[in-house]
Amino acid sequence: MSTKKLEITLNINDEPCRLTVSANETLRDVLRERLELTGTKAGCDDGSCGTCTVLINGQPARSCLTLAVEVEDEKITTIEHLAQDNKLHPLQQAFVDHHAIQCGFCSPGMILTGLAAIREQQAELSRNEIREAISGNQCRCTGYAKIVDAIQAVSQEKG
Ligand code: FES
Ligand code: FES
Question: How large is the C-alpha radius of gyration of the chain?
């Protein structure tokens, strides 16, 4: 059975990106396999692990459950966009400083999810609020405490 092809423009990391996709192609596969943005990880195919999380208009979203054709002209941010001028984003640096990374597989999704929570905070996030924010993201290595430490450190700075 042939799948319909569509020409679309995606806004990825503030760059327009014109490409032809299949109607059933996920955003995750477009990012990883067509655009080589492999910071977005592929851990499952059913939305359960959170490793494929990107920001769509600033909100965390599962790119494995999002069709590329659904997000034409939306603002998509991947982990590759956070470091600027060879300098890690403060939240990335906090993950390093707080030893919140072991294998690193969950880190892009965790960091983008944490970043969205920090950007929306009205006051410093409590540990429970951080746990709630990252509750859809699985980590098989760290036990989560250090990830919460890292997000909390940046949340405190923002106040
Ligand atoms: S790869 Fe998308 S939630 Fe697991
Ligand atoms: S650091 Fe390995 S899955 Fe989180």
Answer: 16
